[in-house]
């Protein structure tokens, strides 16, 4: 779809991205994207974002069709395996590189889309792109995750996560050896003051509690079992980074890139190992375990053999 705009007197001499934003009533960043894509032309050809507009000249803007960032794309997601299928819920093994649901800025596969692609029809309230999602795992974290199928299960499981009656157990390989070998990290977490996409232990953050115990020490790194009391974004990664024992491979939070390379890690060694919860209809305790995926298993074998 193409649109034509005549540059008015008051925008003569304005930078192209700023002027186009006003002409089209869009954000400056959206205008800059159109220009960067080569979608804006004038009498002299393609317009650059810092070019000066000439009053009375005509701009032709070709607006490309963009996918709705919240659209659920039905697709078969490799590695998204079903661990437990119930009338009220489904427990999956989420592979690394898969988001829980669609969101602006994410163009990869999602749990919601993968379940739809596998023939699941989730019937719950809330936004369609988050159908059945009662908790989330980071894109870069693998492991066990539950999705509600029915409205009743959605309500009960959401409440269970909010009231912390769900047993969330993670395994992580962290650098060095935590001291003490078992303990609790109680430190508030909020957005990092200098990086929008990172989190940090900050004074006015949200209460965050992580319990851990060492399972095996390998010298350079240690396998720990973690029980989450709260479920903040990046909680385990932030807490262990604050202790100066970041998850191996987690370059975002200060991991050693050499150790990551030696272990063949392209993401943090962090896995949602086990999930325990009361069945939303019967109240019976249910526990589901996820095995380590190939990349984490390989890194662990290197540590065990002393070849890391």
Report on the architecture of this protein.
Strands 5, 6, 7, 8, 9, 12, 13, 14 and 15 form a nine-stranded mixed sheet that branches. The model has no long low-confidence stretch (mean pLDDT 91). Helix 1 (16-24) crosses helix 2. The protein is globular. By secondary structure, it is an alpha+beta fold. The protein starts with a strand and ends with a helix. It contains seven helices and 15 strands. The chain has helices spanning 16-24, 28-36, 111-117, 151-162, 235-242, 257-262, 294-305; strands spanning 2-6, 40-42, 45-46, 58-62, 81-85, 89-94, 142-148, 167-175, 182-186, 189-192, 195-201, 209-217, 221-228, 270-278, 285-289. It is 20% helix and 29% strand.
List keywords for this structure.
four-stranded antiparallel sheet; 20% helix; 29% strand; 308 residues; globular; 15 strands; alpha+beta; nine-stranded mixed sheet
Q: Would you spell out the secondary-structure blueprint of this structure?
A:
Blueprint: E1 2-6, H1 16-24, H2 28-36, E2 40-42, E3 45-46, E4 58-62, E5 81-85, E6 89-94, H3 111-117, E7 142-148, H4 151-162, E8 167-175, E9 182-186, E10 189-192, E11 195-201, E12 209-217, E13 221-228, H5 235-242, H6 257-262, E14 270-278, E15 285-289, H7 294-305
Helix pairs in contact: 1-2
**Sheet with the most strands, sense and barrel status:** 9 strands, mixed
Helix-and-strand structural type: alpha+beta
Oligomer: single chain
Report the count of strand segments: 15
Mean pLDDT, to the nearest integer, reads 91
Helix-strand string: EHHEEEEEHEHEEEEEEHHEEH
Q: Whole-number radius of gyration?
A: 24 Å
Q: How many helical elements?
A: 7
Instruction: Choose one word for the global shape.
Output: globular
Helix content: 10-25%
Low-confidence stretches: none
Distance between the termini: 55 Å
Please indicate the percent range of residues in DSSP E strands (runs of 2 or more). 25-35%
């Amino acid at each position: 779809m193409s649109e034509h705009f005549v540059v008015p007197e008051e925008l003569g001499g304005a930078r192209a991205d700023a002027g186009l934003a006003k002409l089209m009533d869009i954000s400056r960043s959206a205008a800059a994207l159109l220009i960067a894509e080569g979608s804006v032309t004038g009498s002299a050809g393609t317009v650059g974002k810092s070019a000066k507009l000439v009053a009375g000249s005509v701009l032709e803007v070709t607006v490309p069709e963009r996918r709705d960032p919240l659209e659920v794309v039905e697709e078969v997601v490799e590695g998204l395996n079903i661990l437990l299928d119930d009338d009220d819920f489904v427990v999956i093994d989420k592979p690394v590189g898969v988001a829980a649901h669609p969101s602006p800025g994410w163009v990869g596969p999602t749990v919601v889309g993968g379940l739809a692609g596998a023939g699941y029809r989730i019937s719950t309230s809330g936004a369609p792109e988050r159908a059945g999602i009662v908790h989330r795992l980071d894109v870069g974290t693998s492991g066990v995750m539950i999705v509600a199928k029915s409205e009743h299960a959605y309500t009960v499981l959401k409440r269970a996560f909010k009231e912390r009656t769900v047993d969330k157990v993670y395994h992580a390989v962290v650098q060095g050896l935590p001291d003490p070998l078992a303990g609790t990290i109680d430190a508030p977490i909020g957005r990092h003051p200098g990086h929008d996409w990172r989190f940090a232990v900050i004074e006015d953050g949200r209460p965050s509690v992580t319990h851990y115990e060492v399972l095996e020490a390998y010298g350079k790194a240690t396998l720990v079992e973690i029980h989450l009391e709260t479920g903040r974004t990046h909680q385990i990664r932030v807490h262990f980074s604050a202790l100066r024992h970041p998850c191996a491979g987690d370059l975002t939070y200060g991991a050693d890139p050499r150790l990551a390379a030696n272990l063949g890690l392209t993401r943090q060694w962090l896995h949602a190992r086990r999930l325990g919860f009361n069945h939303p209809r019967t109240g019976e305790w249910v526990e589901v375990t996820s095995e380590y995926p190939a990349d984490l298993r390989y890194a662990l074998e290197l540590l065990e053999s002393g070849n890391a």
